[in-house]
Amino acid sequence: MKRIIYFLVILFAVNQSVAQWVSPGTGLSYTMETLRLAAPSAVQSTISHHYVILQNLTLSAGDTLTLESSAETVNVANGVTLTVHGTLLTADRTQQLVIQGDSTQNSYFEFRFEDATPSNLSHIHIQYCDGIKLINSDMVIDSCEFDHFSNHVVSYMNCHPVIQNSFFHDNQVCAIQSALNTDGCPRIINNVLYNNVLANTNNPQINIGPGTTDTIFIIGNRIEGVASTMSGGIAITNLTNTGITKVLLQDNVIAHNRYGYTQMGYRISSEIFDNQFIENDLEVTPNNGGSGISIYGYENTCAAKLRRNLITGNLWGVTAINYHNVDMGTAEDPGYNVLYGNGNGGVDYELYNNAFSNMNAVGNYWGCDNDAAAEAVIFHQADNASYGLVNYLPINVIEPEILSFDFFLENNPGLAYPEYYNNLYGTITPDDSILFHIYGCVLPDITNLKPTIVKPLGVTISPSENEGQNFYYPVTYTASTPHQTFREYVVYFIIEAGIPDNVLTKINLAPNPVTQGYFTLENPTEEMLQWRIYNATGQCVMFGEAQSGTNRISTKMLKSGTYLVYIQKDNMFVTKKLIVR
Fold it and tell me: At residue 132, does pLDDT exceed 80?
């Protein structure tokens, strides 16, 4: 499976088609309001705090423009270029300022930063723009939104920008792009890139060329494609054999693109840790793409280390092409990558070593629990003598487990009342019960709680942790693996006795253990109570009502074992353990 990818070189052309205003470069400081007064032909105001830029505008070296917090919108006329040689500051903003072009035109405005360190963009929403170009400008872009750009959103040359906490969506080409004949080491952290490359050109959402001695950081981003069948996730390339490119790709979710991550060329060294590559299958011709991860080396200096990645639903799991130095795990340092459900044409392709180089891939999960099944989804020298050999034994097998099950206040605001409730931590017992003990007479709202579940990579949980559940009664969760093993856990809330305000804590079941085929339930209230009996798997096996006073309940239909009895009155309940012999 050989894949050809074409990348475009950025051209940084200057717009000279309209009149322009240039600041004097004498150390002046402007706001949008004082800029309007200084350049009335270039900047006008329709109403208070709303501005229109009608001409090319250049902020000269030495001058500063602060986009003050009172400014609300800036409209930029079609074809205008905003150039910053000085310093643009926005870091004091807490509310978004909208800067937008004319959406009715085919050509929008352009933003250029040249030798503009230490400029920044913070809490700015830019739309209907032709692109933001950074040249020799190590600036910070933080908490911004970019949409409906007609070209690459952020392009950089000879600089190391920090781009974080921002939202790129519905743009025609790449979200972040570097020139391929220059170098730079951006830090791309905690952004959301969604539905870009709408022009359906052969571009990834992040397209980066050679780096320097520093590291390119791509951490904590979500990169998702939707409409474009040609939109890739991330591409790192060094096609000219210049510089040294180091990459840390960690904690990203890359989903629904033409491919997930591709690395191509010379002298690239990447660490690919703890990412999720999910359903990158938009490529209509599998031989042209569709890999979760693809390493295409022009020589063995194209290196990649993969650890603890989830790779599923792609046309190919991991592909290694030509020459490479790929490490997916060794005996001393297992990979713990989880690969399953990757394939096309009815065939599973979890790893395809279409290369001359050998590869270590020890300690990974391949969607199965035995060596023969793993061999069937790994394509290497055993399938074609011209391929490199993959050392993949021993494999790692995941188990259907829940490692922790908790409720956190940030996801469940109902836990804030009463005041002494906050986070609730579950106790997992040897019989796969998950217990929550509540001490008090007034319950928090547990009718729609969403748990936080820790599980082995690759294990799925049903119902999902995003679905709220009513935990007044036991709820069963099923953990499952891709190779079809299952385990059920039952979640119980238990009210502890000893709280005098809750009359239900005075209820007693006797005898306990039950040996004569019945027990009595004393109802100390003057109202009817509801009771339910649950077995060890969380099934309700009996239910009924208890009148005030003594209630005799038969256990003849129950098998010997341990049960939980839930007794409820309005928003209060208690649970009692009942043993039947």
Answer: yes
